User: Which sequence fits this backbone?
């Protein structure tokens, strides 16, 4: 049985003159679901941080490997994917249901254009289910209490929480660690958290200082670069699985074909952890 639910709304919130992270990410991935403002913003950020396109591509590959691991090896059959972005190949439910068709996935994003694409493209296998919530990561209570989430996944059973390339859009003054802590608190023992996050660790010292001091690209929005130790704080109280906090280009990537980028070329830390 397919159970697909979405939250209506949004068309009046679309402003194509202002760049949005989901559409900009789509541009970096080579997609077509973006606008001039997104492309200009993407090019400006890439000019300052040339690793950003490589990082976007490696993030997508990391997501695929993580979901495969959690379904196949950890027995996870339900996911909460926050900051899903515009649907493209190898979405969480596509990867997961390719292994276990009964997997259930709730996607969360706050861009009405993402919502429109989700309605059209996020089609579940008949045995499983997908739902899409039009909600903001910074308001975890609204996500956790939403009826469509509660009707799609069972928070009394282990969940895979996916926070891939999203926490760096939450500034320090918006309590990013508190947001993650609240989400994790709502999950039972045996759940997993997967996260990737841009880092300043591989930047030249002056560029790293500038990136970390501003936590913003002005008209291009927030991009909070964090160090490895700062990323580790998101996993306090959790059991980080092997190989630990590493580059997205390196996390269980032994089977990836072709030349692999270095950690510096990707510029993104990642980790997966289990809630004891």
Assistant:
């Amino acid at each position: 049985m397919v159970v697909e639910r979405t939250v209506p709304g949004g068309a009046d919130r679309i402003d194509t003159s202002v760049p949005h992270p989901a559409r900009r990410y789509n541009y970096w991935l080579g997609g077509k679901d973006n606008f001039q403002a997104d492309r200009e913003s993407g090019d400006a950020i890439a000019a300052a941080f040339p690793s950003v396109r490589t990082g976007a591509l490696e993030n997508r590959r990391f997501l695929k490997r993580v979901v495969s691991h959690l379904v196949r090896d950890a027995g996870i059959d339900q996911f909460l994917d926050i900051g899903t972005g515009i649907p493209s190949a190898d979405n969480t439910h596509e990867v997961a249901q390719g292994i276990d068709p009964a997997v259930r996935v709730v996607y969360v994003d706050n861009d009405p254009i993402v919502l429109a694409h989700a309605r059209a493209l996020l089609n579940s296998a008949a045995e499983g289910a997908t739902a899409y919530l039009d909600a903001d990561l910074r308001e975890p209570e609204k996500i956790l209490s939403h009826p469509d989430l509660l009707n799609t996944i069972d928070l009394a059973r282990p969940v895979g929480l996916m926070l891939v390339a999203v926490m760096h859009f939450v500034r320090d003054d918006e309590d990013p660690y508190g947001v993650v802590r609240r989400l994790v608190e709502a999950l039972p023992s045996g759940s997993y958290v997967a996260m990737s996050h841009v880092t300043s660790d591989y930047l030249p010292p002056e560029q790293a200082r500038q990136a970390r001091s501003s936590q913003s690209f002005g008209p291009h929005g927030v991009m909070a670069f964090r160090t490895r130790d700062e990323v580790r704080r998101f996993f306090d109280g959790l059991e980080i699985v092997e190989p630990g906090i590493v580059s997205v280009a390196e996390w269980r990537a032994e089977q990836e074909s072709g030349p692999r980028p270095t950690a510096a070329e990707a510029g993104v830390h990642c980790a997966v952890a289990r809630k004891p």
User: Anything to note?
Assistant: The chain has one domain: 3-8+51-254+262-274.
